[in-house]
Structure formats: C-alpha cells, structure tokens
Amino acid sequence: MSYIMVDVESDGPIPGDYSMICFGAVVVEDGLARSFYGQLRPISDQFIADALAVSGFSREETLAFPEPQEVMESFAKWLGEVGSDRLMFVSDNNGFDWQFINWYFHHFTGCNPFGFSSTNLGSLYKGLVQDTFKNFKHLRKTKHTHHPVDDAKGNAEALLAMKEEMGLRIRL
C-alpha cells in the first residue's frame, strides 16, 4: 500500500459549481522525492474571489491552465507509476480535498484510482495522542504556503514523524 498525501486549492466550496484550481500530491516515503502538481482550467463560470485568492492565482491566469481531463489523466498515470497495488488518499482536510479529487476523477476519467475511501491526517493524529484538542501541524518541516505541493509535503512530513517519532504503526 502507498500513502499519497494530497492538497487541493479551489475557487469555491464544492466541485461542479466551483472549480479545483490546482492540487499537489506526494508519495509518503523517505525523502518525499516523488510528487505531482496539476493546474486545471475552471469548469464553471462561478468563483468566489476570496477562495481563489488563497491559491495566489487570478481568474485570468486560471483560464489559461490545462484542461481538467488532461490533468486528471496525467495524475492517474502518475499514480499508476507509483507501483502499488493499493493507493491510500490522505490529507489534512480530507472532507474538502477528497470531494474535489474524487469528483474530478469520476467526471473526467470515469474512475478514481484511490477507490472509495480516504484518511484524515488530523483525525489520525488526534487518535494517536488520544486528545481531540491536539493538532499535528507542529510536526511539519515545510512551511505551509498554500502551494499544494508544499502543503502536501509538510503534511507528509508530519505523517512520517508520527511513524518515526511517535510510534504510529503504519506500513509506508
């Protein structure tokens, strides 16, 4: 099994009505050397300026991004090259990130290589420390910049720290 840490930036709260602007993915393994970055042309005329601003891109810039089908097909190919019989989607906010990745995969490629489930990093940490008021973010080494590869890498660093420093039993 391979854990893939994913982070999504969008221009609104839900897929379909709004668009995934960019996303990053990192294979959770020593070195964190394998990553994917995708920018996607909006699928809707709707957008929320404040949500888009988080990504650092203007609406005009996003309109020049590649077509979503092309990006999602490339992502699926990259995931296939990870070399695992099972891929586990994990993110800091899987309720948000998963809905976009899942919707885009099903809409543009017909299936989701991750299957039907995901893992929430924050919930995993809370269970590990047995305290729902605790937060894992101090375990990140890479600064949280809202560039999705940076953010996925920082979250992957946190998961590795949970394994190596805190005794989380996980096969990576």
TrEMBL record:
Q: What is this protein called?
A: Exonuclease
Q: Name its GO BP terms in alphabetical order.
A: DNA metabolic process
Q: State the species of origin.
A: Roseibacillus persicicus
Gene3D superfamilies cross-referenced by the UniProt entry: Ribonuclease H-like superfamily/Ribonuclease H
Alphabetical list of InterPro entries matching this protein: RNaseH-like_sf, RNaseH_sf
One GO MF term attached to the UniProt entry: nucleic acid binding
